[in-house]
């Protein structure tokens, strides 16, 4: 579990996060949603430790990461997997080399052990046998799976995903969501996902944090989304005329078509 307690973050006069207190649970996908400028990305970077808050705490299983020394913080970071929005794969490296990279950086495993772990991770994302291909030789959806395999290679306890469905078609997006959800529940990982994708919200949103103007505007799960009367949530979900019409039609059906 990861908890934040009264997190404040400013950049000069720009007050981005305003007293964020929340929890991200292990074994389920935790989604951060909100419009552009709501503070989602800054919060994600604070959770990872890339930014330091002006005040407040970020607790990994009750340990405040901003009170750790460099050695202790490194131990925490070795338990973190990161799936980047643009995949961040090295074009000059093969798929296998990309996945192996965190092990080269942070472990002293033998090459044989590393190769075995690469194969395990490729099997985990249903992409066995493509070790020697380059990122440019596989599709965008396959690149995303390679990114997931690399994020999982050090057997993380915490997984962070920044817009994992960016640039993907709807069908591939659903497959990526299902894969992340399966890995999260099967390995009891604390997974935090920054997303704009409403399909993700309704598909895997077991714990959803809605942000607006640096505040927590709503918290709940996918089963509560359509039943909520929170105005900020409604404005976010039904921003498009198409979705607004769907909502109106659903309300009519609920009230007997009147």
Name of the CATH class = Alpha Beta
Q: What is the typical, i.e. mean, pLDDT? A: 90
What oligomeric arrangement do these chains adopt?
A: single chain
Q: Quickly count the helices.
A: 10
Uncertain segments are none
Rounded Rg: 20 Å
The chain-level structural class is alpha/beta
How many independent structural domains? 1
Write the layout of secondary structure elements.
Blueprint: E1 2-11, E2 14-24, E3 28-33, H1 40-48, E4 55-60, E5 63-64, H2 70-77, E6 80-83, H3 95-106, H4 111-124, H5 140-152, E7 158-162, H6 170-187, E8 190-194, H7 198-204, E9 207-212, E10 215-220, H8 222-225, H9 231-237, H10 241-254
Parallel strand pairs: 3-8, 3-9, 6-7, 7-8
Antiparallel strand pairs: 1-2, 1-4, 4-5, 9-10
Give an overview of the whole structure.
It is a single chain. With about 260 residues, the chain is of the alpha/beta class. It has a single domain (about 1-225), classed as Rossmann fold (3-Layer(aba) Sandwich). Helix content is about 40%, strand content about 25%. The chain has ten helices and ten strands. The chain has helices spanning about 40-50, 70-75, 95-105, 110-125, 140-150, 170-185, 200-205, 220-225, 230-235, 240-255, and strands spanning about 1-10, 15-25, 30-35, 55-60, 65, 80-85, 160, 190-195, 205-210, 215-220. The strands form two sheets. A six-stranded mixed β-sheet has the order 6-7-8-3-9-10. A four-stranded antiparallel β-sheet has the order 2-1-4-5, with helices on one face. Helix 6 links the parallel strand 7 (about 160) and strand 8 (about 190-195). Helix 3 runs parallel beside helix 5 (about 140-150) and helix 4 (about 110-125) packs across helix 5 (about 140-150). The protein is globular, with a radius of gyration of 20 Å. The mean pLDDT is about 90. This is ATP-binding cassette domain-containing protein. GO terms for molecular function: ATP binding; ATP hydrolysis activity. Keywords: ATP-binding, Nucleotide-binding, Transport. Pfam families: ABC_tran. It comes from Neolewinella aurantiaca.
């Amino acid at each position: 579990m990861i908890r934040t307690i009264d997190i404040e973050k400013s950049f000069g006069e720009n007050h981005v996060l305003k007293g964020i207190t929340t929890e991200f649970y292990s074994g389920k996908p935790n989604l951060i949603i909100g419009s552009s400028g709501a503070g989602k990305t800054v919060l994600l970077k604070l959770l990872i430790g890339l930014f330091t808050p002006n005040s407040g705490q970020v607790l990994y299983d009750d340990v405040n990461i901003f009170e750790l020394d460099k050695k202790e913080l490194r131990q925490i970071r070795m338990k973190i997997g990161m799936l980047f929005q643009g995949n961040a794969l090295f074009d000059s490296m093969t798929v296998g080399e990309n996945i192996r990279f965190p092990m080269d950086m942070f472990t002293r495993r033998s090459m044989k052990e590393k190769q075995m772990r690469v194969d395990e991770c490729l099997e985990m994302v249903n992409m066995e046998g493509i070790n020697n291909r380059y990122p440019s030789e596989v599709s965008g959806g396959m690149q995303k799976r390679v990114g997931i395999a690399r994020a999982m290679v050090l057997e993380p306890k915490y997984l962070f995903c920044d817009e994992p469905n960016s640039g993907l078609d709807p069908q591939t997006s659903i497959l990526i969501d299902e894969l992340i959800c399966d890995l999260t529940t099967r390995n009891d990982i604390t997974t935090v996902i920054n997303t704009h994708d409403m399909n993700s919200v309704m598909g895997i949103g077991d714990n959803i944090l809605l942000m607006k103007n640096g505040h927590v505007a709503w918290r709940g799960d996918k089963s509560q989304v359509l039943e909520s009367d929170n105005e900020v949530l409604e404005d976010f979900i039904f921003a498009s005329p198409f979705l607004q019409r769907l909502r109106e039609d659903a309300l009519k059906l609920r009230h007997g078509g009147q």
